[in-house]
UniProtKB/TrEMBL annotation:
Residues 6-95 form the ABM domain. Pfam families: ABM. Coiled coil: none annotated. The keyword Oxidoreductase applies. Keywords: Monooxygenase, Oxidoreductase. The keyword Chloroplast does not apply. This is Antibiotic biosynthesis monooxygenase. Signal peptide: none annotated. InterPro entries: ABM_dom, AI-2_Isomerase_LsrG, Dimeric_a/b-barrel.
Length: 98
């Protein structure tokens, strides 16, 4: 782990019958996150060949900034809401810059 920026790739598989709710929840969380000083970017993208799998691409200034993000009430509550909207738990991968 470095003191530099932290990149995240989060694979999200919404329930097909609750896609709109899942997207609305994720976009709400994204809007809040973009206001955080430690967030550099956060994009919700959809695969061209698998539109039922989404990816959140994120960059935070540091691991500490991401830890602070994860503790925000809107994020904790939002992730609890998301649990019922997803087919399976999200896959979270963390990356350091080379």
């Amino acid at each position: 782990m470095t003191d530099g920026p932290l990149f995240l790739v989060v694979t999200i598989r919404p329930r097909l019958d609750r896609r709109a709710e899942a997207e609305a929840q994720l976009q709400s969380m994204r809007r809040n996150t973009l206001q955080e000083p430690g967030c550099v970017f956060m994009h919700l993208v959809q695969s061209q060949d698998d539109p039922d799998s989404w990816v959140m691409l994120e960059m935070f200034r540091s691991r500490a900034a991401w830890d602070e993000h994860m503790a925000q009430a809107y994020n904790v509550e939002g992730n609890e809401i998301l649990e019922g909207l997803l087919r399976e738990p999200s896959e979270l991968r963390l990356f350091d810059e080379k």
